[in-house]
Structure formats: structure tokens, C-alpha cells
Design brief:
The protein is of the alpha/beta class and 160 residues long. The chain has a single domain, classed as Rossmann fold (3-Layer(aba) Sandwich). It is globular.
Length: 160
Amino acid sequence: MCEEKVTVYCGDEEITTAAALGYAIQSAGRGDSVIIIQFLKGKREEAMELLRRLEPEVRFFSFARSQKNFAELSQEEQQEEEMNIRNGFNFARKVLVTGECSLLILDGFLGLLDNQMVSAEDLDSLMKAKSEDTKVMFTGKEIDYSMQGYAADVFKIYKH
């Protein structure tokens, strides 16, 4: 188990995502391999096409099936999408267990904690899978109390 801390960007979701993407590009420029897994933002084909041009240095994954943001979905659609979110979470754990990348960015993950789609125990099991060689970054609106024990660097980002 790795006790090393992680980085959290919280605040305006557009800006935290942009900051995380900038960090991903900088890391890839230094020779790091980067995986980005996006949660709760819907399937955005145009953005995914652009991000796929950064492969193989930066790989981008979204397990969303709907084009809509999670908050815009009906309750029935949200229940279906929660299964896809769980698949994304399990993929993140696999990435950490196998050491597939130098940097794993979990974009929108704080919303999973906030909406109780992922528990503190789930977060703990995810962090136990992390090796010393892998940096992890989380983004979202608000930092959850369960995340605070893992966060070394927390950056509050606001829209100006």
C-alpha cells in the first residue's frame, strides 16, 4: 500500500478539467504516460476525438453512454449510467494495480463521492491499489471529507 498523497483540483468543473488536461500534457511532455478517466460529464465525441490525437502518451476514457451530463438525466437514465460509472471506477483500480501509467487523472471523481456513487471504502480500496510510481489527480466541484486524508495538494479553482 502506498501512503503517498494525491493532488486534487476542486471548484468550477470546466476550469478544473482544463487544469488537469494542462497538467497531463506537461507530464506527457516529460515522458510520462497518462490516463484520464472522465466521470459524470456525458459522452462528448468532439472532445474525445481531439484528446485521442494525444495518444499514446495521453489516453482518455469515458464510460458514459449518454451524451448528456449526469445531472441532466432522468432518474431511470441515471441508474443505467451508474453501472457505467462503476465500470469506470473498476477500470481505474485496474490501471493502478497494473501500473499502466505514470499519472492517472480521475476527472469528475469528486462528484462520485458527493453523490454517494462511490463510498469512502471504495476510495480506500482504490488508494490501496496505488503504487509509489503512479501519481493520481482527482477533480470535481467539492472535496469530500473522505478525500481529505489522501490529498497532499488541494487547489481550489474559481471562474473569474
